[in-house]
Amino acid sequence: MPEPFSLADVYSALEDLRARRPLVHNITNYVAMSVSANVLLALGASPAMVHAVEEVEDFVAISDALVVNIGTLSPPWVTAMRKAAERAQAGGKPWVLDPVGCGATPYRTGAAAALAALAPSIIRGNASEIMSLAGETGAGKGVDSLSSADDARAAAAALAGRTGAAVAVTGIVDYVCDRSGPTAIHAGHALMPLSTALGCSLSAVTAAFAAVRPPRQAAVAALAVFGAAGSAAAQRCRGPGHLPVEICDELYRMTPETLAQHARLTT
Amino acid sequence: MPEPFSLADVYSALEDLRARRPLVHNITNYVAMSVSANVLLALGASPAMVHAVEEVEDFVAISDALVVNIGTLSPPWVTAMRKAAERAQAGGKPWVLDPVGCGATPYRTGAAAALAALAPSIIRGNASEIMSLAGETGAGKGVDSLSSADDARAAAAALAGRTGAAVAVTGIVDYVCDRSGPTAIHAGHALMPLSTALGCSLSAVTAAFAAVRPPRQAAVAALAVFGAAGSAAAQRCRGPGHLPVEICDELYRMTPETLAQHARLTT
Amino acid sequence: MPEPFSLADVYSALEDLRARRPLVHNITNYVAMSVSANVLLALGASPAMVHAVEEVEDFVAISDALVVNIGTLSPPWVTAMRKAAERAQAGGKPWVLDPVGCGATPYRTGAAAALAALAPSIIRGNASEIMSLAGETGAGKGVDSLSSADDARAAAAALAGRTGAAVAVTGIVDYVCDRSGPTAIHAGHALMPLSTALGCSLSAVTAAFAAVRPPRQAAVAALAVFGAAGSAAAQRCRGPGHLPVEICDELYRMTPETLAQHARLTT
């Protein structure tokens, strides 16, 4: 049984994040860069996008957390991702892996597996990505998930067991698994998958929380805060277009009341 | 004379697209990636941005359509574009070429011409791009067009005749030409050229329709639906800033009534 | 003492910019591309993002101004930046340097210094970037600034003296320094640093003004117009999410009244 972690604990983590304003080093995909940066700024973190092999190690050294997202990977980027992850591991810095599209092509699956071997603190993906990374025969369809998060919970537990990471699998209900068992996070909204890079942004948020909490608590806090912001934001939207900007506003204005109204934790 | 294709046919194509949710493989420019992904999601398609030479062919194989946009080209990207287009051609997958900025520099013009030789299903550009690709002495000014769509209609017909593609040239009035003749699409709004990457996003929309209709019908449907969404969206805007997010909302909510109110087809 | 330059002069520069619609060549970071393009379009300029070594020199030749921003630099991009800057210098085209994150890593600091040696017309950065580029021991924290603009004014003056550029340092109050002394621009809003790439977009705006005014006047005009747009936009926002799209609308609608209400120039 995992240690209990309540919404009050989640909000306390957010207050610490806002006070510390962690520098989050993002090596992420081209699609997600702008929205991830805006989400991190609205949350209270300080984002930087830095990917050159010539400087990633130096940048990890001055950062509070790292997120590696393989969405638009290519060989020079994968080299930089590995160097940054190794440096984070060596320096005891928390780092988050988002294995976007794992299972869609052999190149992508291989890159994700190689990164997963570098001791990520947290792995965040959708059901088909986590199942593929865990070695299941996932039904990947591009970067969108065809499996429910329920289907993937067993794969997440297996992946957590093998890597030591906290594994967050997101879907209708989100789950965070580590070796102590699962926590379920009930939040979010059906419009969210219709706006690009929100999952990627969530991974960046997870890294920001990992600067102020241990991996499992960081992942639960990130999913609850981001899901609550998404749910609150969707109420102001007539379609997916405005969702990302509304989510930024909700993150910026997040209160214990909004969190309690839009997120729920269960085991 | 082209086969008649009405707004009712356009809406039927949209319904089929929403039902099938085609996976659209985008090799596009950095500026357009995020808005193209959001537009495709709002429309009802499933976008993926994948450009590494190591995986583009594998990804074409699992996709329903491909769009190649040379906006921010460089040699490794051009190599991937060619491989992907060749694979699409070999596999009978529809693919769309957007020759952004063709005519602005010799490098760009050469890359566009080489891609146009790989049997694209559809070519979508503005007047100066289409005129340049057709071999006219176009008056390219960066990526914005200095010629009217009317001026380019002859060039589009010539390009369609030479390549076998359906050629869509967009401006105040849009035209789709194939070897059977032109269709004119009256839709859109004067604010649209003041918001970046909407033309690129339209090319992505064209690819999504090409997954459910033959090239000419796909191009007409894309121009009508996107133009109607743009026109409806502009009514909610006080400037170009909100236009892309309003367009996403309008695409998501598109009805036969909105389509009829904001788009018209003529020969 | 610098030559006097009033808000009426600023608005006159904006009118000239709108009439001329300068083509601005951007070699900028992945995060900023989309918002910079939208900001330039709303302002009245014509943006293009072109970075391949194979075409940057040809593109500088047809452009009215160039902006080089090192935000997500890597070796092939730095090569292109240098070639483009050299071509601008040789051709007498104005060019703007934005040394994003200068001071954060040796690689980044070295690239910025090498570019600063190529006679930029204008250098635009935050306090820690300008202090680092001027050779001060800056307290860089990623890409966000830890020093006040006041602290950096001396560094800006020193950098202006050494390079001959007009140096714009932005913060609570913005300053433009050249060899004739400083101008202070009072505009902007506290929400602006919470939305990504607005500083980068401001550098692009500075390049657009450099197509129609000498460097110092261009920098002052850019800071006043962009700051006024930001201040007016913030009044319509409940958080940082909507800020960039509101800024585009305000730029598009900018009047002498809005400018006078939201910006002030002092020495």
Describe the structure.
The structure is a homotrimer of 267-residue chains. The first copy, chain A, is of the alpha/beta class and 267 residues long. Chain A has a nine-stranded mixed β-sheet with strand order 2-1-3-4-5-6-7-8-9, sandwiched between helices. About 2% of the residues of chain A have low confidence. At the A-B interface, helix 5 of A face helix 2, strand 2, helix 3 and helix 10 of B.
Assign an overall shape of chain A: globular
Reported by name, the CATH topology of chain A is UDP-N-acetylmuramoyl-L-alanine:D-glutamate ligase
Question: Ends of chain A: how far apart?
Answer: 9 Å
Helix/strand/pairing class of chain A, anyone?
alpha/beta
| Backbone CA Rg of chain A | 16 Å
What is the percentage of strand-forming residues of chain A?
Answer: 15-25%
Largest interface in this structure: A-B, 33 and 34 residues
Number of helices of chain A: 11
Tell me the quaternary state.
homotrimer
Q: Main sheet of chain A: which strands, in order across?
A: 2-1-3-4-5-6-7-8-9
